Each structure stands twice: as C-alpha cells, then as structure tokens.
Amino acid sequence: MTQEKSKDSLPENFNSTANLTTNAGFPSSLSISSKDVNDDKPYNPFEHREVEHPNSTFGSILHLLKACLGTGILAMPAAFKNSGLVAGLIGTILAGFICTHTVHILVRASQELCVIAKKPSMSFAETCGAAFTYGPKSIRSWGGAIKKLVDYSLFLTYFSVLCVYVVFIGSSFKEVLDVYVPSLQLSIQTYCALTLVPLVLICQIRNLKYLVPFSAIANVLIVIVFAITLYYVFVDLPPITEREMVSKVSQWPLFLSTVIFAMEGIGVVMPVENEMAKPQKFLGCPGVWNTAMIIVITLYGIVGFFGYVQYGDDVKGSVTLNLPQDEIMAQSAKLIMAVVIYFSYALQFYVPMEMVNRMLQNRSSNKFENVIQISIRTIIVTISVAIAAAFPNLELVISFAGAIFFSTLGLLIPAVVDTVFLWDRNLGKFNYVLIKNTIIGIISIIALVSGSYVSVIGMIEDLSGHHDVHYNVTG
C-alpha cells in the first residue's frame, strides 16, 4: 500500500529545467503528504505540497523578474529598429499580452491536471504529457511521447541560449579590447573560441550550491550594468522625429522573434509556481504572474523605445555594445556584463545537463562516472562555442533562437495543451477557446517561419563575406 501511494504520487522526474536559474541551490523537494486523503473531498494539490524552502508571493515575483529581465531586455532597442517606434510599442504590448496569456492557460491546466492525477505539482513537460493522457481517448497514448518531446524542446531551447551567451561574451570583449589594445584586432570568431576553456572549467561544477555565490554576484553586477546603460541611453536624446515610426514590414519578423526571445519565461514558470508558499496566488488579479509581466512589459517598452531613439539604426544586438568607446565607465559596463553572462552560462548549462543526467541514471553501473561527466560537459560546451563562432551575429542569433525555439515552446505548445485538455470538457461559448488558441498557434507559426527565414538569410549573407562586421550587428 505504501509503495503504491509513493508510486502514484511522485512526478516522473521531469522537473522543469529552468528552476536551476531561478532558484539556484534549492532544487524542488515536493512530495505528497503522508496524511490520508478524504475520498469525499476533492483532491487539493496545494495542501499536499511539502516544499523545503517555499517562496513568498513577493519572492516569487522577484524570481520571475530575475528570469525575464536578463540579456533579452538589452536586445529590445535592436528589436525596435526592426519595427519602428510606434509599431514597436504596440507590438511589445501585444506580444507581452500573448506571452502572459499562454503562461496563464498552461498554469491553469497544470493546476487542474494535478487535481485529476492526484499529484501535488507538475513540471512543464509533465503538464503537457498529462494533458494528452487525460484528454480525448483517441490521443491518450500520446502522453509519454509528448512529455519527451517537450523535454527535448527544453533542451534545445536552453542550449540555444548558451550559444547566444557565447556570442555575447565574445562581442563584449572584442568591443573593449579593440579600443585599448588596437594592435590585437582579433576576429569575433577568435574571441568566441577563447571562451572555451573558461566555460569548460566553470561547467565542471556539478553542485548548484557552489554556484550560488556566483549567482548572487551576477545579480548585483547586472543592476550596475543596467544603471550605467540607462544613463547613457537617456543622456542627450536626439529628437524622436529622427527615427522611423513604422519600419518595413519585411523587418517585422526580426522584431517579433527578438521580442519573443526576450520576453518568454515559459521555462521558469512551473518551478516558481511549484515552489510558492501560496501557489493559488500565482494566477488571478493582480496575481504573481500578471504583476511580474506588467513590470517586464513596461521596462522592455521603455528600454526598447529610448534605446532606439538614442542609437537609431546603429543600435546593436545588445545595447551595451553601443556604449561610448572612449569612456571607462561605459567600457567597464561591457566587461561587467560579459562576466555576468559567464556566470549565467554556468547556471543555464544545468538545463541540458539535467536531461543528460536523467539518461545516465538508466545505466546499470556507475563505472567511469567522472570521466563520462567531464567528457559530456566538455562536448556540450564545445558545440555551443563552435556554433557561436560559426554564427557570431548576436542580433540574428537571438532572432533565430526566438523564432525556432521560444515561439514553439512559449506560444504553440501551451495553446495546443490548453486545447487538448479542454477538448472534451469545455471549449467555451461558440468554441471561443479553440478559435483563440488557433490564432495563437498561427501567430507562433508565422513567427517561427518568417523569423527563422529572415535570420537564416542574414546568417548566409554574413557567411558569404561580411565577417568583419559580425559583432557590429547593425542589420
């Protein structure tokens, strides 16, 4: 009896990978309480959660802000370059609303599925699999496959983030060293390659608690970088009339995919909700998620708008790369941000490694464990560095990652999960849920196809002979 209860209650080890960056050092310890469940009373998953270090409502908002306000916000001026000021503001608000809604429907489905499955909590992948398992009879057998598909998607999504980070580090160092050591003049590919050894070394750290101090330092440093960047963004602003209000439609895909990359926090949502002391406050009005996203959308709009006003079409993939080259404070911000991304790489690296470690657990013995761990970690880092060196255009890499991975994971999959879950339950009056989710799916596919196409074309043009301007990212 005890074995059965334990077997039914434990999630199948599909904890969302993003919890490693949002609550480093405090992995989830959720389990079902040993109390007997009253069969007459509906199962309440919130009452059965036993979290070792539960987050307060305010703390949960801070975790979400930390996850969403990363390198993406520094790419917003480049996004506005591809949309124009007016179109950018409207697009940011609409994209923010859609991203907020898709997370809302995913979490709501997860909470309801926890009641049905009698589980205290579910990860992102588990939620997607359970929606099919407890959905229409004809597709219930797809549950396990869908769960694996989403898990692999998480792997690829956050691996793409690693590639972006390598380009960011390399670009930042090139910007500074080209000024202070002009005789060096190394290519951006060389700078990306030089990150290999430091990244391999820090990624050999297997216990997150040893990275907690680095995470804390990074949080302080990124505030300093934001402060310096905003100072230069708002100093001596040129007239708004000098900038385009609405850019060419052909550039909009780059805007959309960049905003999706910057704003999407789908991977961090379930871990934060699962670790809350009062998870019922995650949704609703104002709610944890709504509050966090209002702040995110506002800040993204402000930085994107005024960053583009300040630098115009010369704005780069990260606005920090536009800071003056002849001022020490500005140059120090670039190096500080490179250090922040270096530490963040180590945390994000746990995303693909979590999946790899689950696969390694199926081995019959633990022989050569250290050799295998070191080898796999080195290989993953090496591949990310190689891809970054091959495609070192920061703006295009961000756009490509947003188009391919984040539009699928953050928009399409939640829409599909919500539709499947409610198919036999309640699709609303006139099937409005189906219509709404179909529209979201179409938007995600448009972002995927158009964004990836424009990004790939740009990358091909770079490879055909524009290597000298890769790091400039001027479009």
UniProtKB/TrEMBL annotation:
**Entry annotated with the keyword Transmembrane helix:** yes
Keyword terms: Membrane, Transmembrane, Transmembrane helix
One MF annotation (Gene Ontology) recorded for this entry: L-amino acid transmembrane transporter activity
State whether keyword Transmembrane applies: yes
Q: Where is the composition biased (Polar residues)?
A: 12-35
Give the compositionally biased regions (Basic and acidic residues). Answer: 1-10, 36-51
Region annotation (Disordered) ranges: 1-51
Localization recorded for this chain is: Membrane
Its record classes its membrane topology as: Multi-pass membrane protein
Q: Which positions, given as ranges, span the membrane? A: 58-80, 86-107, 149-173, 179-203, 210-234, 254-272, 292-311, 331-351, 371-391, 397-417, 438-460
> What GO terms fall under cellular component here?
vacuolar membrane
Where do the Amino acid transporter transmembrane domain residues begin and end?
55-456
Query: Which PANTHER family does the record cross-reference, listed alphabetically?
Result: AMINO ACID TRANSPORTER (PTHR22950), GH04538P (PTHR22950:SF494)
Question: What protein is this chain from?
Answer: Proton-coupled amino acid transporter 4
Q: Which organism is it from?
A: Papilio xuthus (Asian swallowtail butterfly)
